[in-house]
Write a structure and sequence with these properties.
The complex is a heterodimer of chains A (213) and B (480).
Chain A (H helix, E strand, L loop, with lengths): L1 H20 L3 H22 L5 H29 L11 H21 L11 H18 L3 H19 L8 H29 L13
Chain B lengths: L3 H16 L9 H18 L14 H27 L6 H19 L3 H14 L1 H4 L5 H34 L8 H7 L5 H19 L7 H8 L2 H55 L6 H20 L2 H31 L10 H4 L1 H14 L6 H15 L3 H26 L5 H9 L4 H19 L3 H15 L3
Classes of the chains: A mainly alpha (213), B mainly alpha (480).
Chain lengths: 213, 480
């Protein structure tokens, strides 16, 4: 059981690194979506006795993160007619290196943190920290609105991984509410991305500099 | 059960407004729902319900101490909104009215949340429902502001979710069940794993502090407040910030029960003083009179945080200040909205001499300036005085002196801008534009009502409010 979970966690961590290294927006969206699907399947391998609600939440996660959100983002990308984040604020190689350093740091940090005995051997905490870090890097380091949304998604994925530690104690109603909020958030962001594209004729957030002191 | 109506009435009204076919009559949903909400909130203020209605949601003493202020502010903004939306008849208002009402229901839910997860869901939902309100003006500037609001606010709120999970893990690690209700967490008290509690506190303070607008997480505020319509700015500054403040207070109570209250207070104190400093410095160089209001809000959030850090009497005064902040900020935003519309400008380079063009709104704006900068006999004077007194009596003399300097600088900065807007010679364009803007009663009475309320709070603080604040302090500081 925990072997499968560690495999999935490792996969999710690798996908964050791929996201940091890619310049093409379609592949960035695909990586974020794939990571969402990987996360969605995690509860299924974690729980020993599968409650119906766990399956529902897992399925909802896969559908939302793997299908609905990527479709929304791809549509926004197509209306904007761009597919590359040409000049990011933090280059692709430096952000990849930073991400790798963050991964090592996360593993060390997870070792230092006081964990429950059953989580000692698990990669989940390290995976969560490194994914959150990668998400923040994308949010800060990229200049196109869509890449920043993908960064936000990856950040959320990292937090979701941490939430899995609590899956047996958090009421699934709450989990469901959180998932719904996130979907609406991305939906709303997609609309704003679309409007920014129309208003500024660009999705380069560095052009959003009218408002300053 | 009655308290559930505080959430349901605005949400149902939002649904009805979304389906209502006529743009002209739809804005009336705002004051109708606002009135019902206020009556209910005030009734519950006077007749507090006994046990919480649900383990996850309830009108507990903390809710009782602050929610009626938000509700009153909403009612006044809603009354103003009817005439505002009539003036803006060229913009479709279906989404605006529905989202504004939904925001009220969700804010009530967030104030009443007794479960970390529910609190997060409600706060995030408030954030999302205010997005269509922010870009109501449909200008590129408005979209830029909305984008920053989403990105900064979204990241902040994401971190607070991580913090919530960490607090849950603190409970699991300490041998608890991982129950995320505040009551269960506080009952576990010292049993919570200390390192996880501290990590959770930092993340939750950063997360909800972003929503509240504490420096240095305030960067979205000037843009959002500068571009949003006046009533939206007023609700953001007087309602959404209150949600975040109560969230921080609820978390602080858990951290305190876990035995890390000293650390929590120290960080709140530092965040409060830093916010006041940043606000004062930016106010000194502000030129845009709506963005200026955002920095004034950062300053007042700093005062709230400082008051909360002092505990006891300071916390009591902070609740007092929540009310004063809601009323005076509302008056400032609404009168500034009038001036903005009459002048067509936003900075003191474009706007001047508004006392000639819109004499009544200018008088209100000027009076609101004195109210918000804590001139007696308005409420903020008394609440800030009480916070200072609490600071001196708890050996925080230097911090109090620092706060006084910041207040003075903020006063200089604010009054510089307001005087430049109100006095002097109006530019020609403003005269022509101003002639078309009529200072009718519906746009003058709402800010006036808020100012009168601020005055009343200062001169004759009702006993029921004093008692409500005391019991909220009791709820937050009682150690099980």
């Amino acid at each position: 059981m925990s072997g499968a979970l560690d495999l999935l966690t490792g996969l999710a961590m690798g996908l964050s690194l791929v996201a940091l290294g890619t310049s093409r927006l379609p592949s960035l969206i695909r990586v974020a979506a794939l990571q969402g699907v990987v996360l969605g399947t995690m509860p299924l391998v974690m729980e020993h006795d599968l409650r119906a609600m766990v399956v529902v939440v897992a399925l909802a996660t896969v559908v939302m993160k793997g299908v609905v959100i990527p479709v929304l983002l791809r549509r926004a990308m197509r209306t904007a007619n761009i597919d590359r984040d040409m000049d990011p604020l933090i280059g692709f190689l430096p952000s990849l290196l930073l991400g790798a350093a963050g991964l090592i740091g996360a593993v060390l940090l997870a070792r230092w943190l006081p964990l429950l005995p059953e989580h000692h051997e698990s990669l989940l905490v390290a995976g969560s920290i490194s994914t959150v870090f990668s998400g923040l890097l994308l949010l800060i380091g990229r200049s196109k609105a869509i890449s920043q949304v993908c960064g936000y998604l990856i950040l959320e994925n990292g937090i979701y991984m941490f939430g899995l530690l609590l899956i047996s104690s958090t009421p699934l109603l709450v989990e469901g509410g959180i998932l719904l909020d996130l979907t609406v958030a991305v939906f709303v962001t997609g609309i704003i991305v679309d409007r920014i594209q129309r208003a500024f004729d660009s999705l380069d957030t560095r052009k959003l500099t009218v408002l300053r002191e | 059960m009655k308290e559930s109506l505080l959430i349901l009435v605005p949400l149902v009204a939002a649904g009805a407004a979304a389906l209502w076919p006529h743009d002209r009559t739809r804005p009336w949903f705002l004051p109708a729902a606002g009135l019902a909400h206020s009556l209910l909130a005030l009734w519950l203020l006077v007749h507090p319900p006994g046990a919480p209605w649900h383990p996850w949601l309830g009108y507990d003493p903390l809710t009782r101490a602050v929610l009626p202020a938000v509700s009153l502010l909403f009612l006044v903004c809603a009354a103003y909104g009817v005439s505002y939306l009539r003036l803006r008849a060229e913009r479709p208002n279906r989404v605006f009215v529905a989202a504004f009402l939904a925001a009220l229901g969700l804010m009530s839910a967030a104030h009443m949340a007794r479960h970390l997860g529910v609190l997060w869901i409600a706060t995030e939902a408030v954030t999302l429902s205010s997005v269509p309100l922010l870009h109501f003006n449909n200008t590129p500037r408005a979209f830029e502001a909305t984008w920053k609001y989403l990105l900064v606010g979204g990241t902040g709120i994401a971190l607070s979710l991580l913090g919530s999970f960490c607090l849950g893990y603190a409970s699991l690690h300490g041998g608890g069940a991982g129950d995320l209700t505040f009551a269960a967490l506080a009952a576990q008290g010292a049993g919570l794993s200390r390192p996880w509690v501290l990590i959770a506190w930092v993340l939750l303070l950063v997360g909800y502090g972003t929503k509240m607008g504490l420096a240095p997480m305030h960067t979205w505020k000037p843009d959002a407040y500068g571009e949003a319509p006046g009533i939206v700015g007023a609700m953001l500054a007087g309602g959404v910030t209150t949600v975040a403040f109560t969230a921080i207070l609820r978390v602080r109570a858990v951290v305190d029960a876990a035995g890390a209250g000293v650390v929590a207070d120290r960080t709140l104190l530092a965040a409060g003083l830093f916010s006041m400093l940043v606000a004062a410095l930016f106010l000194l160089s502000a030129r845009d009179f709506k963005r200026m209001l955002a920095y004034s809000s950062v300053e007042h959030m700093g005062i709230l945080s400082f008051g909360a850090a002092l505990g006891g009497a300071g916390l009591w005064a902070a609740f007092f200040h929540v009310w004063n902040n809601s009323m005076t900020k509302g008056a400032l935003f609404l009168s500034a909205g009038n001036i903005r519309r009459a002048s067509g400008g936003r900075t003191i380079d474009e706007v001047g001499g508004m006392s000639v063009v819109t004499p009544r709104s200018s008088a209100l704006f000027m009076t609101a300036l004195f109210a918000v900068t804590a001139c007696p006999p308005f409420g903020p004077f008394f609440s800030e005085l009480l916070i200072l007194r609490a600071a001196f009596s708890t050996a925080h003399g230097w911090s109090a002196a620092f706060m006084l300097v910041c207040l003075l600088l903020a006063f200089l900065g604010l009054s510089r801008v307001v005087f430049a807007v109100v006095y002097g010679r109006p530019p020609r364009a403003a005269r022509d534009l101003g002639r078309r803007f009529k200072e009718t009663l519906p746009v003058l009475v709402p800010p006036l009502v808020l100012l009168v309320l601020a005055l009343w709070l200062g001169l004759a603080t009702p006993d029921v409010l004093r008692e409500a604040w005391s019991s909220a302090v009791g709820q937050l500081t009682s150690t099980p």
